[in-house]
């Protein structure tokens, strides 16, 4: 996590927003229908918008993703592993979909 975002992601406001959005979406990945793991910002957070609640806390900018879809979103342009492998939430290399 980037240093500028640490305070935001530890805030009560973010945790309340994240948890309520996750429950509203029933914890289901909005891309593949698997069990969700992460509430993702569609428009990425950066130093220029980290203090804008219309970006950071707006449900229209959020989506629930499973770890695999989140990895694909952030790392698809890189070839970190061979096909069929991914990293889980703990950072361990595992077979995709497991």
TrEMBL record:
UniProt entry tagged with the keyword Hydrolase: yes
GO CC annotation: cytosol
Record keywords: Endonuclease, Hydrolase, Nuclease
The keyword Hydrolase belongs to this UniProt entry's keyword annotation: yes
Top-level taxon of origin: Bacteria
Residue stretches making up the HNH domain: 29-75
A molecular-function term among this protein's GO annotations: endonuclease activity
InterPro entries: HNH (IPR002711), HNH_nuc (IPR003615)
Family assignment from sequence similarity: Belongs to the HNH nuclease family.
Protein name in UniProt: Putative HNH nuclease YajD
Native organism: Peptacetobacter hiranonis (strain DSM 13275 / JCM 10541 / KCTC 15199 / TO-931)
């Amino acid at each position: 996590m980037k240093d500028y975002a640490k305070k935001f992601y530890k805030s009560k406001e973010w945790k309340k927003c994240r948890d309520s959005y996750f429950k509203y979406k029933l914890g289901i990945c909005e891309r593949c229908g698997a069990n969700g793991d992460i509430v993702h910002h569609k428009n990425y957070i950066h130093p220029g918008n980290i203090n804008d609640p219309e970006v950071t806390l707006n449900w229209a900018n959020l989506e629930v993703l499973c770890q695999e879809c989140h990895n694909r979103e952030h790392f698809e342009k890189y070839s970190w592993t061979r096909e069929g492998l991914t990293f889980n939430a703990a950072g361990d290399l595992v077979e995709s979909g497991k």
